[in-house]
Design goal:
The protein has about 220 residues and is an alpha+beta fold. About 35% of the residues lie in helices and about 20% in strands.
């Protein structure tokens, strides 16, 4: 797959893996990509597979939902606001960043959305909330039944990936709504360019089982 960017053309090669399971190591995941790496390649990894390795997934049945989470989730538009119309996912958002931050985000969004200003809820709630994924019937079993939380310490984990494969690494949350670069292994990496490369969401996080990709600049 060739992606035209403001910095030239990049080739993106999604890598198919077996089903990554709870308890699998980062080394196991990266063993699928290592044989194909060339000099100056960058490895992009789906945030969801990192969440699985970290154990940051929850069954909805295990989440006790507060009245606040039920109320707020009923006000969320699925198409424009992502996955937080699920009460259990909204509850996890509250637990991740705190009640006050979620309330402020909700109040600001309620004021700005009628004015045509979208996305303020997630700007205020932050990346941890934006990266939460609700159960998805079209997803890959058994993870289509889980709530997936945003990975902890994504920059640290991107650096761990880089140390294992000796290449730069990016942890990315890409979906139909947009691209969120959660973690990079090198502080000088251009996050805007990384997002530009992944604007078409080339990673298959469902039944394609391609949660990792090699990115190579065309010479």
């Amino acid at each position: 797959m060739n992606i035209m960017t403001s910095n030239g053309v990049y080739e993106v090669y999604p890598i198919k893996t077996d089903l990554i399971r709870l308890g699998d190591s980062l080394e196991h995941l990266l063993s699928y990509v290592e044989p194909y790496l060339s000099d100056d390649d960058t490895v992009f990894v789906s945030e969801k597979v990192i969440s699985i390795i970290q154990g940051r997934i929850r069954y909805p049945e295990e989440v006790k939902v507060s009245k606040l989470a039920s109320f707020l989730s009923s006000k969320v538009n699925q198409r424009s606001d992502g996955n937080l119309n699920n009460p259990e996912s909204m509850e996890m958002a509250i637990r991740e960043v705190g009640t006050i931050r979620i309330l402020i985000a909700a109040m600001v969004a309620a004021i700005t959305k009628p004015l045509g200003i979208k996305g303020m809820f997630y700007r205020i709630a932050g990346k941890k909330v934006r990266g939460i994924d609700s159960p998805d019937k079209g997803g890959l079993p058994p993870y289509n039944e889980f709530i997936s939380l945003t990975p902890e310490s994504p920059n640290t984990w991107a650096n761990k990936i880089s140390q294992i494969i000796n290449h730069k690494a990016v942890i990315v949350d890409a979906n139909d709504i947009g691209v969120n670069i959660l973690g990079v292994s090198d502080e000088d990496m251009d996050r805007k360019l990384c997002a530009e490369i992944f604007i078409s969401n080339p990673l298959g996080q469902k039944r394609e089982q391609t949660p990792i990709a090699i990115v190579r600049k065309r010479q």
